[in-house]
Amino acid sequence: MKINLAEPIFESIQGEGKNIGYPAVFIRTSGCNVHCVLCDTKYSWGEGREVDIEEELKKFKNRHLVITGGEPLLWQNRWREFVKKHPDYFIEFETNGTIKPKIKNVQYNVSPKFGAIAGKDFVNLDVLKEFKKYNSYFKFVIRDEKDWERMEEIIKLVNLPKERIYVMPEGWKDRVIRKHAKKFIKKIIERGYKLSMRAQIWMWGRKRGV
């Protein structure tokens, strides 16, 4: 199966969300249907390079895949065939939550895009309701009080269970992430949400391919 990738496949540690700390193989697809102002992977918006995924994965023993982007569900039909063919993989999709999911037996890490980070509101409530029917977790990147209010509005409108909600403070430096985390930690505890830090920033900063 061939898909265009934004960078070479690599093995690292999942740095965010439910499976933080787990070793995984990362596949970053090219192309995105939303262009957030503060996107940390703008290099993935381009055409990328066509890669034979199955051939490349022979280099890795790890059967835990994190498929990210860009927006990996732009390639959803091909990934659906891959999942059917390779049931031995545990697969996470990192998605912006704007494309309806069609793939079963995977985990979706849904990060709705809105606020200062996105530059505009890309949230699609109907699609988020579809994701709720699947094995999905919802990660909200928060910088300020306005972001928090919009997050709470989305949670209410979609009726998301608190057990599936992760709040991730925005930032590219440890001190900034820590600053934003401290602003919201009390509310996170009160609401029963989960805090997700960014382990990859703590370890490597903005370095790519790690």
UniProtKB/TrEMBL annotation:
GO MF annotations in UniProt: 4 iron, 4 sulfur cluster binding; carbon-nitrogen lyase activity; magnesium ion binding; S-adenosyl-L-methionine binding
Binding locations of S-adenosyl-L-methionine: G70, S111, P112, K113
Cofactor binding annotation: Binds 1 S-adenosyl-L-methionine per subunit.
Group of enzyme by EC: lyase
EC number: 4.3.99.3
The keyword Disulfide bond is assigned to this record: no
Keyword S-adenosyl-L-methionine annotated: yes
Radical SAM core domain boundaries: 27-99
Positions of substrate binding: I13, Q14, G15, R28, T68
Pathway the protein takes part in: Purine metabolism; 7-cyano-7-deazaguanine biosynthesis
InterPro entries documented for this protein: 7-CO-7-deazaguanine_synth-like (IPR024924), Aldolase_TIM (IPR013785), rSAM (IPR007197), rSAM_sf (IPR058240)
Required cofactor(s): S-adenosyl-L-methionine; Mg(2+); [4Fe-4S] cluster
Residues the entry annotates as binding Mg(2+): T41
Complex formation: Homodimer.
Family recorded in the similarity comment: Belongs to the radical SAM superfamily. 7-carboxy-7-deazaguanine synthase family.
Identification of the protein by name: 7-carboxy-7-deazaguanine synthase
Organism: Caldisericum exile
Taxon lineage: Bacteria, Pseudomonadati, Caldisericota/Cryosericota group, Caldisericota, Caldisericia
